[in-house]
Amino acid sequence: MKRELIINYVKENLADERTGHDYYHGLRTAKLSEGMLLKDQPDASQTSRDIAFTAAMVHDTIDEKVCADPDRVLAELKELFAQAGLDEEAQDNIFFTIEHMSFSKNIEHRYQLSLEGEYVQDADRLESLGAIGIARAFVYSGKHDDKIYDPEIKPAKLVDHDQYRNHEETTINHFYEKLFKLVDLMNTKAAQAEAVRRTDYMHEFVDEFLQEWNLD
């Protein structure tokens, strides 16, 4: 498969992205998903590796948070995948993964992804944890004019996609509403241990933040 075609498309498509869903996020997610796949499944075929890498690389090009016209991008990806050498079965796997892997899509109903899709979903969720996860949470909130913290605004119980997208939120509440819960949603063995490590780091950060906030 011609990976450089995939990489170059994402680099161009997300060149102006400023909320933590940029080209470098895609590249880290792609490397992480393929690496975890090989860690758990050392005999994984090259096709399986290509599916994981590609789905992870392109997943945010159609994300509603950063893409104004997902249908247009999906059509472009269809052509791109064919040019890169992915067959129809691989393409179907990738399209199902990127259209059903997001946290918001799985609040009410958890979709069953392919083996490769599970590693892509886990890698994307790991990117929301740890030091990079903290940085991405704050840059996203700043871009959307959310408060850093307000003790009068309590964390919400997330019930569906629309409520998740539209409820009043602070960055610190986002840790309680979503980020701290991801560790229990990991699909794969390789992701589980890393999720624990990164989540522990985030707990330390939030504990320190609240200690500094509550000086009385």
Automatic annotation (TrEMBL):
Matching InterPro entries: HD/PDEase_dom, HD_domain
Domain HD/PDEase: from-to ranges: 18-138
UniProt cross-references to Gene3D superfamilies, sorted A to Z: 1.20.58.1910, HD-domain/PDEase-like (1.10.472.50)
Residues in the signal sequence: none
Entry protein name: HD domain-containing protein
Lineage, uppermost ranks: Bacteria, Bacillati, Bacillota, Bacilli, Lactobacillales
